[in-house]
């Protein structure tokens, strides 16, 4: 391009000297390709290889034998006209864009006539009189108007032309070349390619393969091609005729049903940004052909039959208007959560119309989640293909199909939790997590997903296997729902949940989807009354911070806690956090009582045996030691060995002869809470925790004495 401009600048100074030279054999009925070359040669134009016009002259000879012959023979006969001459180098570049060889162009007489007729301006073009924004009428029916862009560069006034139905901008040089009294010539740096028959341009597949910045999109097209063929053949059979099928690899499309499309293709940088914000890997996404195809189809938009003049040029950036709506391809089937029932909203196109030749275009997808800014900006516009117009965008629009369940299923380390969701007993919850927010009353749910290792360790601690969960539906539902936060807060306010780890207070309490009767302390620690939502707490503390001031976050359930491995993984209907431990539901079926804890702790064997001797198993298992929660300071086996050695006795002797002393020792190790509360209204969970202890705290023990706890 730089070389053509330089040569054109030289020509501009040269041709001013020969602007009054009349050429013989160009005007009236004597115009031929040879006569045009001779006229240019007489004025010493076209001798340079970079500014040769041999191919344009060949087109003139073809055009004289076609339907545009009369137009060419009558050039300059009635009124002033200007012929835009295009050099051979520009034709070579245009042939690459059109994916046609020069021989193929000359053999297409319709294309030849369109090129020639769009090169005939129905007026004299004088660089001193033309103004910025002027329209030039041509002899073409498909490209009837050319628009002028005037650029003042220091002391040089430069002219550029473009068209609203084309994608090329051409610089003009030497605007005063006179071919005959009423016919002048002007030289253009590029060919304004007319949008004639669509097969004059390459397929979307070839365009994506030829542009390095679209290599990731090209790979996505390749691996989803077979699925796309099935989709295209079934999507439009018997459809209402407002849209039409199309093909990426060939130029076969349903033109009568408006098969043209606007293809908004993500650049490689856009794909990298998408992987970062969704925390997906390329291998995981590209292994899910259905989701990958939905991402591609979501940014392939079509105008509907209610919008007029639907043809190839309708999808150019210069044809788009602010607020334009494009129907995503497959909106009612592959992109919809309920095929045939709920259709995905249209894409909105925002255009800055203040710029004419280079417009700012932005597309916006459906606002499926507060976690996605579902917009993208066009960084390269108006690449013409045989089935539509390609626009390169700077971000990947997230389709509704990227739900929380889809995010879970794409991660191998969460395969066990995903299998639990797929169980028949969890069908309702799975459908909820796989439904976009527009049709989902539980929008913005958050899933705390334990890893496969975490699930195995937790089940091993309880004494079950993974298969045991599938044998008892109640256990399965309790285990899964305890890891899902409802959209309602713990107080029941009907507000959408917008959970972001680390952005809230240091302690947040959330209601889970697990509803279970409360634990009634006054009724021997049994579960009584109406089920209520069990809660979990998210603790964020900056005490003892790590480097770079990264806060520590803990998810605390009733019976155990977990740390966050990853958090705030977005989806179109909520978020996902990956945790390193599975939370144990506080239910009777799971049965993790004080006695169960003691039983499952290997270092508390002596303590367990001594409590059994004293007959306290029932209290530790169900009845409890008061109205409130109890904290047990259980000595380890080594601690008992030390005590027995100090007392100069054995475990058997103290169990048989000193049961009263043994009872006092154990009662001294128990610190029950004695608060009174209304069990019908809420479930109180307020045991003594070491993290809340202060130096010198005094706790009332079951021995009705006092135990002083000192924190060092």
Automatic annotation (TrEMBL):
Residues covered by the FAS1 domain: 223-397, 401-583, 591-712
Keywords: Signal
Organism: Ostreococcus lucimarinus (strain CCE9901)
Short name of one Pfam family: Fasciclin
InterPro entries, per the entry: Adhesion/Biosynth-related, FAS1_dom_sf, FAS1_domain
UniProt name for this protein: FAS1 domain-containing protein
Residues spanning the signal sequence: 1-23
């Amino acid at each position: 391009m730089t070389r053509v401009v330089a040569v054109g600048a030289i020509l501009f100074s040269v041709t001013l000297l020969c602007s009054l030279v009349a050429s013989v054999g160009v005007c009236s009925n004597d115009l031929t390709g040879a006569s045009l070359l001779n006229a240019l040669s007489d004025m010493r134009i076209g001798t340079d290889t970079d500014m040769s016009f041999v191919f344009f002259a060949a087109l003139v000879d073809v055009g004289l034998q076609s339907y545009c012959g009369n137009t060419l023979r009558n050039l300059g006969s009635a009124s002033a006209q200007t012929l835009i001459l295009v050099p051979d180098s520009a034709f070579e570049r245009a042939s690459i864009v059109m994916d046609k060889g020069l021989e193929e162009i000359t053999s297409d007489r319709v294309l030849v006539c369109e090129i020639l007729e769009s090169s005939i301006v129905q007026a004299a073009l004088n660089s001193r009189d033309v103004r910025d924004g002027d329209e030039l009428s041509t002899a073409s029916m498909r490209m009837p108007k050319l628009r002028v862009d005037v650029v003042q560069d220091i002391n040089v006034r430069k002219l550029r032309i473009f068209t609203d139905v084309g994608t090329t901008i051409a610089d003009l040089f030497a605007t005063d070349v006179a071919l005959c009294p009423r016919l002048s010539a002007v030289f253009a740096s590029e060919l304004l390619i007319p949008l004639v028959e669509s097969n004059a341009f390459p397929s979307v597949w070839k365009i994506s393969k030829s542009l390095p910045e679209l290599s990731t999109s090209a790979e996505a097209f390749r691996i989803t091609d077979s699925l796309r063929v099935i989709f295209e053949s079934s999507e439009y059979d018997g459809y209402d005729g407002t849209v039409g099928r199309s093909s990426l690899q060939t130029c076969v499309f349903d033109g009568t049903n408006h098969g043209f499309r606007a293809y908004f293709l993500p650049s490689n940088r856009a794909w990298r940004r998408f992987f970062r914000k969704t925390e997906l890997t390329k291998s995981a996404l590209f292994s899910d052909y259905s989701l990958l195809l939905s991402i591609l189809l979501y940014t392939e938009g079509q105008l509907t039959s209610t919008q007029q003049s639907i043809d190839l040029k309708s999808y150019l950036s210069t044809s788009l208007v602010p607020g334009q709506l494009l129907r995503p391809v497959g909106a009612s089937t592959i992109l919809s959560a309920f095929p045939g029932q709920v259709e995905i909203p249209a894409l909105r196109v925002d255009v800055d119309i203040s710029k004419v030749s280079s417009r700012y275009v932005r597309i916006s997808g459906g606002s499926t989640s507060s976690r996605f800014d579902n917009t993208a900006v066009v960084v390269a516009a108006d690449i013409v293909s045989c089935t539509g117009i390609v626009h390169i965008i700077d971000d990947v629009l997230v389709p509704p199909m990227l739900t929380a369940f889809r995010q879970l299923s794409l991660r191998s380390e969460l395969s066990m939790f995903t299998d639990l969701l797929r169980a028949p007993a969890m069908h309702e919850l799975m459908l909820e997590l796989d439904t976009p927010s527009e049709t989902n009353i539980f929008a913005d749910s958050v899933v705390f997903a334990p890893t496969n290792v975490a699930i195995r360790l937790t089940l091993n601690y309880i004494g079950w296997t993974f298969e045991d969960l599938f044998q008892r539906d109640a256990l399965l539902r309790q285990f899964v729902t305890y890891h899902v936060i409802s959209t309602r807060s713990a107080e029941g306010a009907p507000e959408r949940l917008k959970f972001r780890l680390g952005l809230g207070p240091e302690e947040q309490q959330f209601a889970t989807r697990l509803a279970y009767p409360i634990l009634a302390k006054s009724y021997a620690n049994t579960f009584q009354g109406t089920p209520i939502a069990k809660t979990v707490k998210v603790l964020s503390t900056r005490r003892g911070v790590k480097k770079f001031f990264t806060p520590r976050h803990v998810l605390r359930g009733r019976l155990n806690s977990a740390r966050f491995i990853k958090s705030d993984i977005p989806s179109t209907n909520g978020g996902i956090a990956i945790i390193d431990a599975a939370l144990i539901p506080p239910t009777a079926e799971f049965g993790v009582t004080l006695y169960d804890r003691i039983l499952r702790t290997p270092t508390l064997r002596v303590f367990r045996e001594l409590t059994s001797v004293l007959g306290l198993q029932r209290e530790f298992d169900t009845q409890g030691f008061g109205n409130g929660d109890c904290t047990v300071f259980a000595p380890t086996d080594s601690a008992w060995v030390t005590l027995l050695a100090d007392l100069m006795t054995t475990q058997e002797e103290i169990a048989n002869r000193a049961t009263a002393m043994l009872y006092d020792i154990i009662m001294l190790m128990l610190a029950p809470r004695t608060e009174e509360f209304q069990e019908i209204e809420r479930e109180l969970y307020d045991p003594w925790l070491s993290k809340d202890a202060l130096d010198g705290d005094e706790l009332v023990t079951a021995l009705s004495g006092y135990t002083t706890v000192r924190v060092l």
